[in-house]
Design a protein that fits this description.
This is Phosphoribosylglycinamide formyltransferase. Keywords: Purine biosynthesis, Transferase. Catalyzes the transfer of a formyl group from 10-formyltetrahydrofolate to 5-phospho-ribosyl-glycinamide (GAR), producing 5-phospho-ribosyl-N-formylglycinamide (FGAR) and tetrahydrofolate. InterPro entries: Formyl_transf_N, Formyl_transf_N_sf, GART, GART_AS. This protein is an alpha/beta fold and 210 residues long. The protein is built from 6 helices and 9 strands. Strand 8 and strand 9 form a beta hairpin.
Length: 210
């Protein structure tokens, strides 16, 4: 993918909760606007109303939309509605920033290779909902976070970048997860900027950035 040099990459960010990753992107874009971060957030979508992530977007003057699963007769209809609502903003990249729903075939058909997610473990180890807990229970000494493209599997898409976090003897799940989140926010911001500015291509499981 290559974004025309004449404009920043258009980002749509999907959230379900507090939106701390969204805020990290907003803060970086605001600070680096003059020097050229290379991307702008054109909309924020959510799967429910009343989230802090939506409020962060509104405070920044960014359009928002909500697609709730329960407002549709089937999961496929919800997926189609989410696809249409997202596509209306013509994004170059779609960012899952704590979006807690699994998208379907129509969404991936439209945004495959452009839909980015973060995971709080070093994939392919410890995929799924409880990556932090599973790593801690397994007894690993190092864990971390992964930024990857989303495919049809659960945390199985091509890996873009990873950040390493040491596991301390005194860690519980909450303490470890908070340290992972700090690295995750920095890594996501760095990755999105690089992809937006430099473009990329996907060859098999490899993501190549010039």
């Amino acid at each position: 993918m290559a974004v025309p040099a004449s404009r920043p990459a258009r980002l749509v960010v999907l959230v379900s909760g507090a939106g701390t990753n969204l805020q990290a992107l907003l803060d970086t874009i605001a600070v680096q606007h003059v020097v050229g971060y290379g991307a702008e957030i054109v909309a924020v979508g959510a799967d429910r109303h009343g989230t802090e992530g939506l409020e962060r977007a509104k405070r920044s003057g960014i359009p928002t939309y909500v697609c709730r699963v329960e407002d549709h007769a089937s999961r496929a209809e919800w997926d189609a509605a989410l696809t249409a609502a997202t596509a209306a903003y013509e994004p170059d990249l779609v960012i899952s920033a704590g979006f807690m729903k699994i998208v379907g075939k129509e969404f991936l058909g439209r945004f495959g290779g452009r839909f980015i997610n973060t995971h709080p473990a070093l994939l392919p180890s410890f995929p799924g909902t409880h990556g932090v807990r599973d790593a801690l229970e397994y007894g690993v000494k190092m864990t971390g976070c992964t930024v990857h493209f989303v495919d049809e599997g659960v945390d199985t898409g091509p890996i873009i970048a990873q950040g390493v976090v040491e596991v301390r003897d005194e860690d519980d799940e909450t303490a470890l997860h908070e340290r992972i989140k700090e690295v995750e926010r920095r890594l996501l911001v760095e990755v999105v900027g690089r992809l937006a500015r430099d473009g990329y291509r996907i060859e098999g499981r490899k993501v190549l950035i010039p």
